[in-house]
């Protein structure tokens, strides 16, 4: 009887560890970063000084939402290599702006990753073509006259969000803006 209870306890504990994603063997203290593979290039983001003529701002008032989005995206990436949080706005006339949040790292299945990231978001999402990956955008007209265009992407080396606000729908601008900072492929 006692042996049976002990065996069940061990099986239950092992199952709990397996479900939690843990293993019985300890992880090494310092694991070297995984080498990029041909199918999954690693990126280092570049941060332009301006986008669409708008200067970058680092003021907390403007970067708070983008930083939160970057943290959220980071939870979706296995072995993150780089992050990006940037906001471009003329703070004296904030009628137009661009927020960038991105994480570089291993993305095995970009289409599934994009569905995972955007699955619980509200709005009408439409596919957006980006080079080397998949994207989706939604337009929010609830704060007229401002129109907010939110776009997400996933590709083998990164996931991210571009949020644009202004007086028009900016979905067509998403691929060009995404390319401006998603350029630094890491090579050995």
Protein architecture, described:
The protein has helices spanning 2-19, 60-74, 110-118, 174-181, and strands at 43-44, 50-51, 54-57, 78-89, 97-106, 126-130, 133-140, 147-155, 158-166, 184-185. The chain is of the alpha+beta class. The chain has one domain (43-185): Protein Transport Mog1p, Chain A, CATH 3.40.1000. The chain is globular and about 40 Å long. Mean pLDDT is 78; it is low at 1-40. This is Lipoprotein. It comes from Pseudosporangium ferrugineum.
Topology:
Elements: H1 2-19, E1 43-44, E2 50-51, E3 54-57, H2 60-74, E4 78-89, E5 97-106, H3 110-118, E6 126-130, E7 133-140, E8 147-155, E9 158-166, H4 174-181, E10 184-185
Antiparallel strand pairs: 1-10, 2-3, 3-4, 4-5, 5-9, 6-7, 7-8, 8-9
> What is the subunit organization of this protein?
single chain
Q: How many strands, which pairing sense, and closed or not: the largest β-sheet?
A: 8 strands, antiparallel
Strand order of the largest sheet: 2-3-4-5-9-8-7-6
Structural class: alpha+beta
Protein name: Lipoprotein
Signal peptide: 1-30
Keywords: Signal
